Amino acid sequence: xxxxxxxxxxxxxxxxxxxxxxxxxxxxxTGELIATVPSATEEDVExxxxxxxxxxxxxxxxxxxERMAILHKAASxxxxxxxxxxxxxVLESSKTIREARKEVIRxxxxxxxxxxxxxxxxxxTIPFSQMPGHENRVGYVYxxxxxxxxxxxxxxDPLNLxxxxxxxxxxAGNAVIVKPASLTPLSALRFAEAFLYAGLPKDILSVxxxxxxxxxxxxxxxxDVRFVSFTGGYxxxxxxxxxxxxxxxxMELGSNSPTIILKDANVKEAIHSTxxxxxxxxxxxxxxxxxxxxxxxxxQTFLTTFVEETKKLKVGxxxxxxxxxxxxxxxxEAKRVEKWIIEAxxxxxxxxxxxxxxxxxxxxxxxxxxxxxxxxxxxxxFGPVVLIQSINSLEEGIEYSNKSGYGLQxxxxxxxxxxxxxxxxxxxxxxxxxxxSSDVRIDAMPFGGIKGSGLGREGVKYQIEAMTEQKVVAFKxxxxxxx
Length: 483
Known about the structure:
Aldehyde Dehydrogenase, Chain A, domain 1; 6-stranded mixed β-sheet; Aldehyde_DH_dom
C-alpha cells in the first residue's frame, strides 16, 4: 500500500495557507515523492509583504527581552524535537543522518547566538565639539530595525541557513519573509513551527514556498522590502542585485575554494582535513575544498594517501550510520558534475579515483593534471570532486589560488608562522584558515567573501548590523557643556 503524500501548507503572517497549485518534493536518494508544498503566486507574495508591514511594526516594538525569550524558546523547541528536524533534513536533502544531526545542533546554536546578540545592539557617542562652531552640540548614533527582510535560502543547509537569516532579523526587530529552495522547503516549514510555538507575534514571519522564477522577482523588487539576504549561485545573485534597486543586500554566492599544502605541513592532518572538506554533503558546500595545491617534494606521498583515504569513503543510503556520502540533490546536478568530469578528461585530466555516476550518486572523485581552462577548474563544481596539483613554492600556490573569480575561503597547512602570515596577507579571500582546509565555519564568525563570492558578511552579529540602520541624533544646547 502506497504511503499517503503529505500536503504541506505555507506560512503567511502567522497563518497556514494552502495554494491553488503544488510543487512535489522528492527524496533525492530514492526518488520517492515525500510531500507537496504550495506553489506561491505573485499575489501570495504581495499578501505576505502586506502582512510583514504590520509585522515589522510589531517586531520593532518588542522589548529586547521578549525577542530574546522568543529566540531561546524556539531554540529549545528544536532541541526537544531534534529527531523530527534530523528526519526532515535527511528526507528532503542530500545529507546523511550524521550530517543532519550536526546541522540541527548548529541551528540551535545560531538561534541562541541571535538571542544573546539582541542585547548587544549598541550605538556610539559623537563628540560634536571636535569641529569649531559645534561646541554646544552633543550627539549619539543608535541602530533601528531596517523593516522587512527577504531571505532566500539554498538546498544544501535547509535548516541552519534559514536560522542565519531569521534569527538575526528577529533579534534586530524586523519582519522576515523566507523563500526556501523549492527542492528542500520542508525544513523551513518545520523551522517556522518552532517560532509559532515560541509565541512570535503574527505577521512577523512568513515562509512562502514556490518557484523562484515566479516569486523572487516581485519579492526582491518590492519597495517595502528593505533588505535582501540571498545564499546561492553567482548568476542568480547578480540578477537579484540588478532587480533589488536601492536597498541593502547580502549575498553569499559560493566559491571553488583552494587549500595549499607545504612541505613542512603535518601531512596526515592535512589529508584528513581536506578529504573531509572535499566530500562532505556530497561536495555541495560553498566552502568545500575544490582545489588542492601541494608542494612538489611531498606531492606524490600526499596524492597516494589522499586517494587511499578517498576510496575508503562509503557512498550509500542517507539513514545508514556508516554512510559518508549521500546523493546529490538531483539527477540533473549529478549529470552536470559527470559532464564536467568527462570534459576535463578529454582535455587531459587524469581520474585518480571515482568519476562514475549512478542516478543521483556520484563517486568521490580525485582529478590531477586538470587544465586551467577546464570548466571544473574555473567554476564551482558543487559536487564530490577535488583537483590536486603540484606546486614549486608558496608563491606559486598563492598565485594559482588567486586566479579564481571567487574569493570565499582558503586554507593552508604550514608549521612556519612567517609563511602563514604571508598567506594571510596575499590570499584574496574573505577567510584564510591556517592548518585547516577551507571548510571551517562557526556560526558566530563573519562569513562571506570577495570578488564573485558575494557581498557583506553572515554570522549572527554581522547580520544584525546589516539588518539595522544607523540614526544620528544631535542635541543643540543653550550653552556649551565645555564652558
